[in-house]
Amino acid sequence: MWMDISTLEPGHKLFSRRIAITDDAVAGYLTAVDDDGEAYAREGITPPMAVAAVVMGEALQAIELPAGAVHTGQELGFEAPVNVGAEVDCAATVVQNSVRRGTRFMALEITADVGDDRALTGRVSLAIPEGAIPEGGE
Amino acid sequence: MATPESLPEISHKVTQAQLAKYADASGDHNPLHLDEAFAAGTPYGRTIAHGMLVLAFVSETMTKSFGRAWMCEGKLKAKFRAPVYPGDTLTTTGTLKSTSDAKATYDFVVRKQDGSDVLTAEAAVPIAC
After folding, report:
1. Which of B12, B21, B55 sits opposite A28 (nearest CB)?
2. For residue A51, what is the nearest residue in chain B, using CA coordinates?
3. C-alpha span between B59 and B61 (Å, rounded)
4. What is the reported pTM?
5. B66, A87, A107, B68: CA torsion to nearest 10
C-alpha cells in the first residue's frame, strides 16, 4: 500500500534520520555530478549539494511520488560547513499540500544539522497531477 | 572578494550512466530517472535527469568562483523549466544581478544544446566574509 499524499497535512514530518557522510559517499556524489572536487578537497568540506542530494533523496523516497510528479522548484541555504565523515541529522516536513485546477502543489522543508548546528535548509516545490498513479501502485 | 560580471561557463553532457550514479549517490531511485520502460509510460516518454543533478551545475560554478564563502553561506533559489534527457548537453551561465555591502547575487540559466532553458536560478554569496 502506498502513501496517500492527499492526507499529508502541513507540519507532517516525512522522515528524520541520521546519515553519515563518508569519503565514499562524497566521492560517489562528485563522480555522479562530473565535478573534479578540487575546491572541496582544498577546504576539507563536503560539497553542500551532496548533503542536499542525500536529504532530498530520503524525502522523495518517503513521499513515494507518483510518476507524473514534477519537481518545479528548489531553494537551498548553506548555513555551515559539513566535514567529510560527519554524521548529519536530516529531516523533511510537509509545509504545503493543496489542490488547484487539478494539480496538487506540495512543498517540503528540508533540514540537515550537525550536532546543534544547522548546516542546510531548503524548500522543495512539487506539482503532482491529481489522479497520477503512484510508482508501483498498480 | 571580487564579483565578476559573468562567471565562467561550464558544460556537461548528461548520460544515462550518470543518472544511475546520481541515483546511487542521492538514494533517489525513482524509476522515472532509471527505467526506460517505466518512463515510456509517463508524460516524458523517456527517462529524465534528476532536477538536483542539473542544479549541481549551478553550485559547481559558484564553488569554483567563490569557494568557501559559497560552500558555507550560499543561498540558492531555482525553478526547473523543462526536463533534461540523457544525451542533452547543458551549458550553465551566471551573470551578476546585484551587489550590496554584504552579498553578491547572480542570475543563472542552464540551457540545452538547442538553446532552450531547462533551469533558471538566483544564487547569492556573501562578499564581506
Report:
1. B21
2. B26
3. 5
4. 0.93
5. -10
